[in-house]
Design goal:
It comes from Mytilus galloprovincialis. Pfam families: Exo70_C (PF03081). Keywords: Exocytosis, Protein transport, Transport. By secondary structure, the protein is mainly alpha-helical. It has 3 domains: about 110 residues; about 140 residues, Tetracycline Repressor, domain 2 (Orthogonal Bundle); about 60 residues, no CATH class. About 75% of the residues lie in helices and about 0% in strands. Helix 2 packs parallel to helix 5. The longest helix has about 40 residues. It is elongated, with a radius of gyration of 32 Å. The protein starts with a helix and ends in an 8-residue tail after the last helix.
Length: about 350
Amino acid sequence: SKGHRRQGSYNDSVENLDVEVEIYITQLSALLKLMQSEAQLMSCIIPDKNRRTVFDGIVQQSLDSVVSEGEMLATQAKKSINKHEFMSVLSIFPVVKHLRSIKPDFDYTLEGCSTPTRSKLASMLSTLGSTGAKALEDFIESIKNDPERASMPKDGTVHELTNRTIIFLEPLLDYSETAGAMLLMHGEQAAPSEAVDAKKSKMKFADYMTKVLSALGLNLSNKSETYNDPTLRPVFMLNNYNYILKSITRSGLLNLIHLCNKDVGQYYEDQIHEQKRLYSESWSKVLHYILEIDEPLSQQRLMMPDVKRLMMPDVKLKDKEKQNIKDKFSVSKNYLEIRLSLSGNINLFKQ
């Protein structure tokens, strides 16, 4: 189908971008090694007073080349953000992580060079960082603004938005410090790089994930209200809550989230139990017809003339009595079929 072709093309573009990123990271490391080797070689040939000026001129072309490629990655990422193709933006996180780790070595190697030369990598890193921060913030907005009736599963199973959210968050676990630093340095209250450390970065990213899950939960709750059958609402929420909890537990995201909020795991457990309770209430109507809760066949009722007459052998039922019995079993059968159909899409007692 066209949808599958579009998806395939999108996945191919992401894979191609990943290859480009791996090559680019290798280029950054290679450039650093070459610059270090060149600086060491020059120390034996070029006089001290001219060494930095000569070195500055030698590294310009290579440095400009990697900076230009880095800026192109940022430009591609910005286009992906505008298209809400957030998976493509993930490619800049390994670049920023790697560049942050080797930047001190670059700074040391470029000591004594001109200010414009020394600031090129810092400028590129800032551009990539601000782009990453924007992607993270816009992702939350995309969750909040996802249309309420968009792609609602007819049987109350896991929504596409839930799946997309988990798929986006899971790879970021390997870049939690990088993502957190992006948000700290390029968020609404930007912090200087020297004020950002690993602990603060992780805490910031943990806080970010709680905001993502909060936005997702609110959107799913609004979506559930669009079901015409109210009994589908707890089925839908139960499936989505269960999927979220299992996913963030399995991936390790929950442990990171607990750095910021230790109640998140228990919150999902409580919500799952609550949705089970609400779903179980939908069986009350079935039991009502089966057990005749509102009109039990008590001894007093058995002695009523109309009931006694119906229990007599060879009695002929009136048309109205036949229809009442038929209607009761018909409603019970139909309702039971609906409930059993729904229960096939959830697991109420195992997680």
